[in-house]
Amino acid sequence: MSGFPEFIYRDNELFVESVPLKQIADEFGTPCYIYSRSALTKAYQEFDSSFASRDHLICYAVKANSNIAILNLFAQLGSGFDIVSGGELLRVIKAGGDPGKTVFSGVGKNVNEMRMALDANILCFNVESEAELLALNQIAEDMDKIAPVSLRVNPDVDAKTHPYISTGLKENKFGIPTSEAERIYKSAHRYAHIRFTGLDCHIGSQLTDLEPFMQAGNKMLDLLNKLQSQGLEIEHLDLGGGLGIRYANETPPTIKEYVSALCAKTHQIKQRLLIEPGRSLVGNSGILLTRVEYLKHTPARNFAIVDAAMNDLMRPALYDAYHEILPVTENNGECKNYQIVGPVCETGDFLGHDRRLSLAHGNLLAIMSAGAYGMSMSSNYNTRPRAAEVMIDKSTVHIIRQRETIDQLIATEQVLP
User: Fold this and answer.
1) Using CA atoms, how far apart are residues 61 and 371, in angstroms rounded to an integer?
2) The pTM is what?
3) Is 30 exposed, middle or buried (0-12, 13-18, 19+ CB in 10 A)?
4) Vertex 255: Cα angle to 223 and 240 (nearest 5)
5) Backbone CA torsion sign across 298, 301, 302, 305
6) β-bridge pairing 388-393 and 396-401
7) What is the pLDDT averaged over residues 2-18?
8) CA angle 115, 121, 123 (to 5 degrees)
9) How far is it, in rounded angstroms, from Cα 175 to Cα 153?
10) Contact predicate 105/82, CB 8 Å
11) What is the pLDDT at residue 5?
12) pLDDT > 90 in the chain, percent
């Protein structure tokens, strides 16, 4: 459990900080997402302190976990934000975040989102196509504003991660090829309502090796040097996010190793450095708590049917992702090889395959490393209300999202006359 210092066993009971998980299940039910304030704070502070005196801005990737309590915590710590929708911008504002420290990424920003972001005076649009740049220029003209822009460059670097979360190859939908980006920057005079303020890239998520980051960094520095030699003023270099975490046996770089490598790579430039961490800030700061509903033994397999499902945690079904699964109460009973599955009517509804556990009806299980892309990707499939979310602060339990009700799910629907 070295990767989860805030989640520890005491007298065979699993705790988060100073609170036993059984207490949370009794009070709030299951399934339930649980986060450690201490873990979230430590992760952010490690990023921030690793930059030392280097001018920087950490822009938390809101899509990883968008609960406003988490956004508010990061805002209090000084964080900026990386958003990919107008809804995420509204969340940042509601959470007390600063739009002036917010970058807007994503390939499909619509007119209303662009207007909203211009009204809020965000730090920068990370523009991903020439068509988007033309649209933004027109909208800014209509609003009598100047839009701050950083082109997101696709450096064609293999991040060596799952193909669904690789974003920096030339065949991906993200970003602008380097040669095209150089041409667009050179034609800045064509865009009277655009101010090019930065240069941006992002190559993927859950990277466990520094080499792809360094390859992308080299390409970005080459482009930056070309732009500066032509008299273009670039104020910041945004190197994206993507640092991986340990789910099982991965050995990703530490936050300090990652940031130190970025700072060393860019030590000769004066531009402010931006990064967009998401998973590495919240992933190992949260878990999903679930209860065993039934044990089903067949000649082929043993199934533990739990009350959490693929609608609560999509990563295993979507990416065949691994999450460690721990018993909330340790016991010395006979261990069997279990498939941990949910009640959704899909064979793909599983949370873990082939786990050696000693289980009984009603046992609680903790699905680890669920703080990123857990609740934010959850759905109401099978008309299942989404889980409650709680934050633990030492010995205090805060409810930060009430469990949904079925009445809420159907409240906006109506039958035909």
Assistant:
1) 13
2) 0.95
3) buried
4) 30
5) negative
6) antiparallel
7) 89
8) 115
9) 5
10) yes
11) 81
12) 86
CA angle, 86 as apex, 64 and 179 as ends, to 5°? 80
In the chain, the amino acid numbered 241 is G
User: For 142-163, what is the mean pLDDT?
Assistant: 82
Of residues 59, 263, 335, 345, which has the active-site annotation? Answer: 345
CA distance 381 to 25: 23
The type of residue at 148 is: P
Residue 345 appears among annotated catalytic residues: yes
The amino acid present at 137, given as its one-letter code, is: N
Answer yes or no: is pLDDT of 1 > 70: no
Task: Give the rounded distance of the alpha carbon of 127 from its chain centre.
Answer: 20
pLDDT in tens, 185-210: 988 889 999 999 999 998 888 999 99
**Is 357's pLDDT higher than 80?**
yes
Q: Which amino acid is at 115?
A: R
Amino acid in the structure at residue 53: S
In residues, how long is the chain?
417
* CA nearest to 222, candidates 178, 259, 185: 178
Question: Quick check: 181 and 133 in contact, CB under 8 A?
Answer: no
